[in-house]
Request: fold
Amino acid sequence: MNVNLLILRLKKLITYGTALLLLLLILLQSERAIIAVQNTLVLCYKTVIPSLFPFFVLSGILTAGSFIKTVAKWLSPIMKPIFGISGAGALPFVIGIVSGYPMGASVCAELYRSGAITRREAMRLLPFSNNSGPLFIIGAVGTAMLGDPHVGVVLYGVHIACAILVGICFRFYHGAERHYERMPTKKITSAVSFSQIMANSVSTMLLVCGFIIFFAVITACIMPMINSLFPKSFSLLVNSILEVTNGAFTIVHAPLSPRLMLSFLSAAIGFGGICVMMQVSGIITPVGLSVKTYAVGKALHGLLSGIMCYLVYPFASIDVAPAFAVIPPISPAADLTSLVILLSVAVCLCLIIPHKKQGKTAKN
Reply:
């Protein structure tokens, strides 16, 4: 049997099997699922939509007009030698670090859709322009979870510095050659343009809220089972990989030293979680950009963030009291078990990612 066909069938089996399992869990825990949806709808109504929707509309206006040409002209001498992209790429990076996930990816997709940047530039931009914002890192993590805004400022600084390092690394990204490099542009009136911007903003906002609600339900239904079947260290890993907010809360309350706790916290924020990754996939896939490159970049961002935070900790004058140890001490055997399970999950995720056929598929 052809290897590509076997991989494709295995992906379908894993995807459908996982969907059926999750459906069964939701049916068995319908009350928990309903509460999760209700709480997340309130979160979207009070926090997510007010903090993101205006940025979606305003960034759409900026990328649709001549403003981006001025930005490209003035910032190309800086962006081109450092990141290998035109000056227009500065806009998604700045908006991304100010507004948070997934604004950077949204602006990057808009720039590519409008023809302001090439596909190669868009793929270089994605991994380092879509970042967490100060509202989450300094406000939610630093102030609310750790009780010290100064810690949030340090984490935010590490987050931005590592995003820049990722951008420098991806300067050497070339990607697959395509018969087109730049999306064709269309001349449209300002009234039609604004209507399209508003429609795109509403669509993107619904997409983001939909993923947040979906992952809230999944997390609420599977975490009790994971907590009862696997070591607590694995619960920490799953929370961090699935959704960054729950992951950050779990890490803060883990029995770790302050230095390790902040390092793992920085890594989780840098990675962003699968929930954000799915939001980004929904934004960039319609315009023809690949989520694989973005996933590799965010994994590198998380790794660099964890290492840098660990190295910076002794010099940052941070005094973080250990969180309440709600999780019992973790044994080496549990760590080994969690590592094996984590590797298995990583393999499954790689199989689920859409596989692009190379050339013609051989027959059986």
Observations:
- The two ends are 5 Å apart (CA to CA).
- Confidence is low (pLDDT under 50) at residues 176-180, 322-364.
- The chain has 15 helices and no strands.
- The CA atoms of residues 263 and 307 lie 7 Å apart.
